[in-house]
Structures are given as structure tokens and as C-alpha cells.
Amino acid sequence: MVKETILLIEDEEHDQEHIRQRIEKHYQLKIAASYRDALKALQREDFDYIFLDLRLPENQGGKVDKQGTFGVKLLKHIKEKLPLVPVVVISGLQSSKTAIRLLEYGIVDFVDKDDLDIWLETLVKKGQLLKDICLQNKILRHEILGSPKVDGLITKSKLWENIKTTITQAAPIEETILITGETGTGKELVAREIVNLSPRKESIYLPINCTQFSGNLLDSELFGYEKGAFTGANERKHGIFEAANNGTILLDEIGDITEEMQAKLLRLLQAKEFLRVGGTEAKKVNVRIIAATGRNLEQMIEEGEFRQDLYHRLNRVRIHIPPLRERKEDIEPLVRHFIKKYCGKHGKPEKHLGRKTLARLKYCDWPGNVRELENMVSRAILFSQSDTLFPEDFDTKISESEAEIIQNAGSCNLGIVEKETIRQALSSFKTRKEAAAKLGITENTLKAKIDKYRLAHIRPPKDNTPKTEAAKPSEDKEKLSPEQRRILDHIRETGSINNKTARQMFGVAPKTIAAWCEELMDKGLIIREGNGRSARYVMNIGKTSKPAEENRF
After folding, report:
1. What is the pLDDT of residue 512?
2. Are residues 173 and 293 located together in one domain of the fold?
């Protein structure tokens, strides 16, 4: 068990040693011998308790101020910057006038240096109680003032009502929060709202994108490192967690951290402590963590890429942000907000938004979500020469005729219209890239919609170039195992199968599934599309000379 750390601010070496003998058995002790040394120590690391002698020199070896001016000044600094750290005054300046003034700063108590070992346990318990009371007061203040209002989220969507409720309920508590959603949906904005409504509002908030730092670099950035830990580590560096002590950190793209980093983060969440790179001394820290990701962590757990125990630690409160295409009623208020924002930024009169322009924007798919919409509005305002924004001011890659078809779909199910449109595009163009360009969406969005509507079996048109007939795939049913026949049946029913689905169907190791599928590919019955986690198997229709007979498996 890691000992709690006490900072002793005392200039007399004799008294330092006297107090050390009484404290070191149960606590880690750090010593500052002057006002300036104490300020540096408080900036450098975190402490559980502070024992302060008011009579201090400004600098080590300097003249002691017997009036206690530097001690009182230091006390003010501590209570302003670190209000939850208990302070015990161990000084002879204990006149009633001084005592009353110091008690107003919220110190735990006075104690004589000779009696410190007698009162130590009581003082620590009293300090912890005071710390708990201060934290509870912050939480209760939120409750007494009523449910706070979420002001930074611009929305008309009913999907956001539950999100806002969750934000107001989760903000005052100290649990970790996991925010999920596609890129550009506003995960960081939600994190900022949580911080603004939390008891840590006045403390430091640091948003960190984990993908900006590769492997070991992220380790040293988050946890810091000791001098000599690696080549170029010429001095100790304090990490982000130490810098954000008593505050909040947003770990964005948490799904992209390494297995080693996952283990270190789990320890931090469990024990509130960590080791600097190259260090051996555990450092305690009090940081609230908000994590965000656009990846499917549950699937990553099944594939062995993310720790389940870390996931449960992060997922104490879950907030999922739907993509913009699922809440298109938000497009109008968002566009009007961005028009006002960027007209002001670019020094232009506020522009009008035409009805046709808004209709065009509403029928776009917005694969980049709110971020893409904001960038497009900013660009339109920057280059528009009119006081009204027209459809041609937005590079939305959707024709008026296509928008009209969707708009006039009336009571038809838009999902059916979309599915049929994608089916026709896949059947009309040789590559998915060309199909995506025609549809005005990215290849990733097209891939997601192919999965959604189970259209992986749709093949591009064949050209008219004469080809030599390919060898007929083996259709000997007796040579296929029952598992292989189930795999083929599943592909015919749904269009494709991936490793995850196959593992759920059979409950066997991935190597076994791979062997089954390799054999089916050798027979020319199926082919593999994609690599890694995105790999899937589909029927080899293009190479089958008699597809009608193949379908009898």
C-alpha cells in the first residue's frame, strides 16, 4: 500500500529531523525549508497533507521572518490553489488573534512540534474529514441550485434530451464517463459541458487526443518521466496527469491506446496512482477522467484488442452521441448558429439562408457530421459575395434532381429509397469508389450503408470483353463440413460473414474459422474482402460458372 505524502514546510534542520522521526513510519515526508522552496514543491507534485511552520525565510538560508508574514502568505496561496488539501500549523505563533485569523483560512488545527506524534493520527483524520466536507459542499451546491442548464449544445432533436439529462445528472458526481459517437459529432463539446457543470469547474481541464502521440510518447506525455529514463531525458518531466491534479482530463480516441497504456490507465483508475517512465516511486493524483471514442469498444474486447476491466472502469456513465444523419432536425439551428458565428469572425453582415439551400443541406448525408457542416458553412460565408447563401455556395455534391427525388418520396420509407439507390449505384459502377462519388458520400460511409442494408453480395457490372471460362468451383457437398455449409448458408442469407459472427455461431478459435474459410476459398466458393478487423467473406459469384447450382448448398 502506498503511503500518503505530507509536505513539511520548516526551516530548522533540528526540527525537520525531530518531525521526520515521528512521521516517517506511517507517511512519506517531503521537506521545504523556505517560502520559495514550498511554492516550487507545490507546483511540482501533489500532497495529501501540509504541515506548515509560519516562521519562514523567503529563500533557503535567508533571514527568518519572525512575524510569520511568509507563512501566512503561503497559507493564502495553498487555500486558494489547493482548497481540498488539509493544512496543520506547527508554529509558536499561537496568540488568540493569530489563531482566529488562521482559522478563517480553514486550517485543520494548531499543534506543538513536541506533541506532533501524539496528535498525528487525530490531525490526519480531522484533515480527511475536512476534505470530504469541502467536496460534498461543492456537490450539494449544484443540487441546491437545481438542475443546471446545458447551454453549449445547439439542438432540436429529441435524441438529445436524454443526453442532456444524463449530462446534468453525471456532472456533479466523480465517476468516469465514456462518450461514444462518430468523428465530428461533438464528443469534446459534451465533455466541456460536463466539466462546466461539475464541482471541478474552476480547476484545470485538459483535452488530450491519444492519436497525436505514438506508443511510448503518449506514456511519457501522460505520466511524465525521470531523468535518464531514456535517451534525451536530461531532466525530470511532470506528465499531464500531474499537471491536471484536482482537475479533469478528456482522453479522446481512447480506443487507439496500446495494451501497455491500457494497463497503466487501469492502475490509475483503480489506485489513483501511477509511475513516471523510469520511476520507482508511486505518485498519487486526483483526476477525473472522461474518455471518448468513435470505435466499437465492445467489439474490440471480443477481438482481444481492448481490456474488458478497463472498459468497465471507463463505462461507469455512458453517453452516446448519434450522427447528424439521424437527427437532421438539428441541421437548421446548427447552420444558423454557424452563420452568425462566422459572419462575425469574418467581419461580414449576417447572411440569410434560403429555403432551397436549407433543403439541400438537410438531404446531405454529412459523413463528417457537425464538424463537416461547420467547415462548409464557414467556407461558404468566406467566399459568398451575396447577402444570401445559395445552394451553389455549398459544395455538397448532391444534385437538385436527387434532392427533389428524396424530398418527393412523401410517405415512402426513406430507408427503402436509400437502399434501392445504393443498390443501383453498386450495380452501375465498376468500383465502390465510383459509386460513392456518384452518391456524394465517402467510401467509408458507403461501406457502412452496405453493411446496414446487407448489400455486400451486389456485384459491379461485367464488361463485354470475352473471357476464358473460369474453372467451376467444387460443388461436392460431401467434401464440405457441416460448419462450412452453415457458413455458406449464412453468406447467402445476409450477403457476407466476418470472423466475429462466425465465432459467435461456432464458439471456436479464430484459427479454426480461418482454416474453414481458406478451404472454401480454395474450392472457389467464397472470396475475402478487406483486411484485418474489416475483413469479410462473400460468395464468389463472379468466378462461378453455374451460380444457380451453387445456390443448392
Report:
1. 80
2. yes
